[in-house]
Amino acid sequence: MTMPSLVTRHPSLVTRRRSAAFTLIELLVVIAIIAILAGLGFAGMKGAMDAGKKAQARNDVSQIASAVKAYLLEFGRLPEKGTLMATLTGNNPKKIVFFEAKNAVKGKGGLQGQNMMDPWGEAYKITLDDDYDNKTKGELSGVEHLTTVVVETMAPDKKVISNVQ
Prior knowledge:
The protein is of the alpha+beta class. Helices cover 37% and strands 14% of the residues.
């Protein structure tokens, strides 16, 4: 007969094996950290998207103003206000495309009918120097400029984006 060992006689001396699984607290801490990092990432992403839309709007107003000025140089007159975008996109006597525009997509802007839409879905405000005195007053800003065309839009932060400053 064998004698029971000291370990079998005293269960308190038996070392427990640690389970290979995570505890509930560890899992909750990891989930909380991931949620915080995701929240920070989404906030940064929104800021980058807003900056991208403002850059797109600045580019659009510059391109539209350049197209109007190119039309004026080519034909010696400004395009008709009611058909401005059609005229600039190739519906003119020489079929010259002064401005290339994609069709409007919500949240990205583009051409919608006779209006060029900004990235926020509003039409750009285009003011032409109809009396050819080289003075044009911005529709949104209310400021008079020495130019033949003023193209403006308003960003969600209420700042006017214009081809003239």
